Amino acid sequence: MTIHTDRLTNASDRRGRRGTDLPATFVDDSIPTAAVRRLLSNERRRAVVDALLETDEPLAIHQLVARLADAEHDATAVTSLHELRQRIHVSLCRTHLPLLENHRVVDYDPENGRVTPGARLSAVGSLLEVDLDGLE
């Protein structure tokens, strides 16, 4: 299924299989539901979307890494905070940010170390609280 924002929908069209009310417009232009599920299925990608929605301005990679590491760090864990930050940095730069950029959720500039809100950020962000299993 592809989600189109140019199509008018009524309440019954916005309901998933479980009856979850979904926003009338999921994303700018169109984006397959499977892509939305994939983007929001990972906690780090969800955290990136959430962080950019909170600040609504560009973030330096090191700020984003620090924010995610602080949220994920367990003081009783064997992994040090420094090691966790390194792991998060690598996973963001190699996997999560390029994927989010491919779907225009963020604009990622690896040369300057900046992540900027993309065209689809607010639309995808509106789905953070939606039960993705309810999407058809």
Automatic annotation (TrEMBL):
<dbReference type="Pfam" id="PF24035">
    <property type="entry name" value="DUF7344"/>
</dbReference>
<feature type="compositionally biased region" description="Basic and acidic residues">
    <location>
        <begin position="1"/>
        <end position="20"/>
    </location>
</feature>
<protein>
    <recommendedName>
        <fullName>DUF7344 domain-containing protein</fullName>
    </recommendedName>
</protein>
<feature type="region of interest" description="Disordered">
    <location>
        <begin position="1"/>
        <end position="21"/>
    </location>
</feature>
<dbReference type="InterPro" id="IPR055768">
    <property type="entry name" value="DUF7344"/>
</dbReference>
<feature type="domain" description="DUF7344">
    <location>
        <begin position="38"/>
        <end position="116"/>
    </location>
</feature>
